[in-house]
């Protein structure tokens, strides 16, 4: 097809505008300073946290925040969480901090928990997507906190993956999805928790768990007493339904091949999968069963009894299938106790429930 000169000029400009994503190593003492300068300039920088990597922008700068949605291909109605380095920064973002927020922060911050609270005026609509609340998180990763402090601003940061894909827990994952789309990535090695933060809202009548994560439901209840669980954790929510956490309604964490989850006693689910596999099948299984699926691409994500390993490995293993020719994936899955609730949620969402 013939292209007009104008179209060609636009295409050339776009190619020139594609940026080179710089990897900023932890060993270089200038890395945090460089990353902070980029953020202050309205650029995007991926940063390590204890949960997963995030793509950060200055949360007060609506134009910078818009770029996050472009880089990720993120739906416009899915709000971002804001990261702070010290508890007192919450008062800049939220005019009336609920007493329960203080209790939770005392117990679990710094750490893998995000609280949804009423938002203050300094949060632009680009962050909150029109909601009157904002998610706030105080991460424990030293590089994340150093970057927030050095840049001097709260950082809006969703997980650093293309929307719909598994989250990123290494710099290699971030570069796979974001190379050329963000200015830089701060290299903090592999993330320790591996699944995203727990999201709890304090903006409803009763506290409600919106996303299970690094802090367990049992831990939340030990501090607050009763905590409700959002129905989006257990069922697929239609596009037309109004949900508490907009992110929960989208297909998520998905490798390219469709995933089928088999739940139950690990010994039984392994046997069931072994009896159903065919050609070009992939299997996501606990370490104990890796040898019982002949002629399959097998990805193990930790021992059946080691939920910490399962959380750390699950996204990396789901991503690994994309380098293979598998056309379907069968998956084992832990039960819903403790961190198992978060791991199982990610695997079920990868399967579209
Ligand atoms: O561990 C984490 O939380 C990572 C790291 C980078 O901190 N971040 C992360 O962000 O997972 P994201 O955007 O991938 O997931 C945030 C979730 C989404 O499901 C979003 O819909 C929900 O939190 N959320 C954000 N703001 C909200 C709000 N005001 N009300 C309800 N849900 C909200
Ligand atoms: Mg995400």
Widest β-sheet, arrangement of strands: 1-8-2-3-7-4-6-5-9-10-11
Percentage beta strand: 15-25%
Low-confidence stretches: 1-16
Shape: globular
Query: Which structural class do the helices and strands define?
Result: alpha/beta
Could you spell the SSE succession in H and E letters? HEHEEHEHHEHEHEHEEEHEEHEEHEH
Q: What's the rounded overall pLDDT mean?
A: 93
Measured between the Cα atoms of the first and last residue, the distance is 43 Å
User: Number of DSSP helices?
Assistant: 12
Helix percentage range: 25-40%
List how many beta strands DSSP finds. Answer: 15
Rg: 21 Å
Give the bound compounds.
threonylcarbamoyladenylate, magnesium ion
Main beta sheet: 11 strands, mixed
Molecular structure report:
- By secondary structure, the chain is α/β, with parallel strands linked by helices.
- The chain is built from twelve helices and 15 strands.
- An eleven-stranded mixed beta sheet has the order 1-8-2-3-7-4-6-5-9-10-11, with helices on both faces. Strands 12-15-13-14 form a four-stranded parallel beta sheet, covered by helices on one side.
- The longest helix has 14 residues.
- The N terminus is likely disordered.
- The structure holds threonylcarbamoyladenylate (TXA) and magnesium ion.
- The site of threonylcarbamoyladenylate has 30 residues, from strand 5, strand 6 and strand 10.
